[in-house]
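User: quick one, sequence for these tokens?
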């Protein structure tokens, strides 16, 4: 299949760009050690472009844009000067390296070549079906450890998902993010299928939605719900109220089918006890407690923060001294569970301000290009950032850096713009 796809591209740079798209599309099923593969292909393509292809004046992109979009990691690096835990600091720089490199790679590539609709579709098709495969792998894994036979609880199986899934281990939140992005892609691919192929496509989408509901990570659910509402609002005339109502009814039925687990998580959010007392077994209660600690620590150094390596230690100290909570397992160490607060904690209001401006730039570009898909992705990531430190883990960093910078710097052809409007 890869040979058939690549045969449609004539030049070396077109084929290398196709490799980038394919590797990004395969991201859901790439083993964790190979997750950075798209960045490697990007680097190769960038070097090829620098050596073999001059910059096109008509595609000039302001230099300050990649500078700004890569500035967060530069601030992280500067904060090493005053951080107290250099080991964690350097580890965070290693994990977040794509935040620095990817904007520059796409900046250089986009100034020298155009992106075709075919290349874009390679990414969307590959990512969607790779996500369906990933969903089935998770389901098979759950079968193998006894979830569907009733031998193990869902929480037990989800804990095994993060560490035991055959080279594809992910925390349930990041597994949900991977699947959610595929669901956002689905409406843009639907019309390209007909007959039995459309039926298979719908089944694949249902599997993704089922697993997303099964894992039910609240932040991801809220993020994708808002993202899809934006899509439905913009497409309401084209889709029609009847079809929108039908989709809503299907989702409600799906929710009722898993109402016990969903209601448990939702009620936890609205229970007074969640916030009145600390319960280490309730995620919302612990998040609220961690937020209190993070805000206290931010107030001690609001302008420049405490340094990129100090988050774990500061939160750990606060939980012990203020609430008497001690986690002896290092895997249970708590981050801020809110990327905005995390950046503020690491680099102060300066870092947070730059990051918010970065998100504003993404939104501005999406609006200027009328790229609805790009807009949905930004909304999705912006909401998830409120509940997770996705830029502190490899999967979150790569998804954020690759997808947002691809569409920010991409010079879309007219037919590609129309496809995503």
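Assistant:
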């Amino acid at each position: 299949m890869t040979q058939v796809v690549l045969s449609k591209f004539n030049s070396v740079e077109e084929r290398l760009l196709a490799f980038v798209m394919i590797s990004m599309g395969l991201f859901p099923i790439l083993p964790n050690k190979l997750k950075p593969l798209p960045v490697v292909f990007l680097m190769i393509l960038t070097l090829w472009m620098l050596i073999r292809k001059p910059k096109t004046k008509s595609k000039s992109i302001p230099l300050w844009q990649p500078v700004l979009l890569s500035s967060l990691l530069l601030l992280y690096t500067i904060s090493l000067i005053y951080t107290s835990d250099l080991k964690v600091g350097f580890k965070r720089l290693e994990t977040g390296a794509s935040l620095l490199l990817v904007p520059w790679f796409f900046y250089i590539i986009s100034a020298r070549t155009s992106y075709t609709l075919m290349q874009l579709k390679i990414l969307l098709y590959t990512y969607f079906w790779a996500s369906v495969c990933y969903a089935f792998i998770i389901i098979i894994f759950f079968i193998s450890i006894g979830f569907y036979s009733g031998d193990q609880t869902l929480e037990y199986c989800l804990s095994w998902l993060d560490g035991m899934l055959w080279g594809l281990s992910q925390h349930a939140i990041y597994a949900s993010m991977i699947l959610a992005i595929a669901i956002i892609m689905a409406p843009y691919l639907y019309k390209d299928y007909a007959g039995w192929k459309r039926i298979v496509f719908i089944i694949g989408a249902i599997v993704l939605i089922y697993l997303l509901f099964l894992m039910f990570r609240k932040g991801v659910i809220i993020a994708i719900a808002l993202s899809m509402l934006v899509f439905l609002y913009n497409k309401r005339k084209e889709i029609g109220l009847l079809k929108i109502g039908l989709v809503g009814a299907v989702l409600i039925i799906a929710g009722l089918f898993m109402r016990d687990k969903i209601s448990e998580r939702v009620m936890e959010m609205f229970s007074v006890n969640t916030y009145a007392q600390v319960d280490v077994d309730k995620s919302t209660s612990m998040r609220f407690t961690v937020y209190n600690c993070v805000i206290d620590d931010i107030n001690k150094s609001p302008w420049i923060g405490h340094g990129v390596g100090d988050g774990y230690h500061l939160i750990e100290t606060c939980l012990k001294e203020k609430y008497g909570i001690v986690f002896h397992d290092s895997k249970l160490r708590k981050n801020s569970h809110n990327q905005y607060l995390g950046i503020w904690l690491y680099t102060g209001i300066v870092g947070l301000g730059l990051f918010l401006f970065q998100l504003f730039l993404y939104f501005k570009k999406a609006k200027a290009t009328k790229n609805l898909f790009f807009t949905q992705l930004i909304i999705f990531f912006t909401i998830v950032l409120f509940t997770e430190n996705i830029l502190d883990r490899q999967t979150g960093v790569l998804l954020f850096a690759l997808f947002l910078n691809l569409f920010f710097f991409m010079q879309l052809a007219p037919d590609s713009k129309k496809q995503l409007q």
